[in-house]
Amino acid sequence: MGTAIDPIIQIGKAGIGEAVVRQLDEALEARELVKVRIISNAPEETQEALPQLAEAVQAELVQVIGRNMLFYRRSEKKPTIELP
Q1: CATH class given for the domain over 2-72
Q2: Do 17 and 49 touch, CB atoms closer than 8 A?
Q3: Which of 11, 47, 67, 82 has a CA-to-CA distance to 37 between 20 and 30 Å?
């Protein structure tokens, strides 16, 4: 499912801050499955902070491929993805 979607959030030189957490939280509520990209000028520790980002938005870090990450969290208002 994540293969077909484009990254809608980018983490840049500022790293993971409150704005990124808020954007991801809102995107997960609206879409449930969100792809995030870390751009090349992001701080090196950004890769290591991904589990903390997932915890901050209460989501699952489903997949990491290179600089792209896929997060999942079931929507409380209108769930659309059915897991087996």
Answers
A1: alpha beta
A2: no
A3: 82
Residue whose entry in the numeric block shows the structure tokens 């997932």 = 54
Q: What is the pTM of this model?
A: 0.88
pLDDT at 23 over 90: yes
Q: What is the mean pLDDT of residues 55-78?
A: 91
Secondary structure of the chain in the HEC alphabet?
Answer: CHHHCCCCEEECCCCCCHHHHHHHHHHHHHHCEEEEEECCCCCHHHHHHHHHHHHHCCCEEEEEECCEEEEECCCCCCCCCCCC
* Ranges of each domain in the chain: 2-72
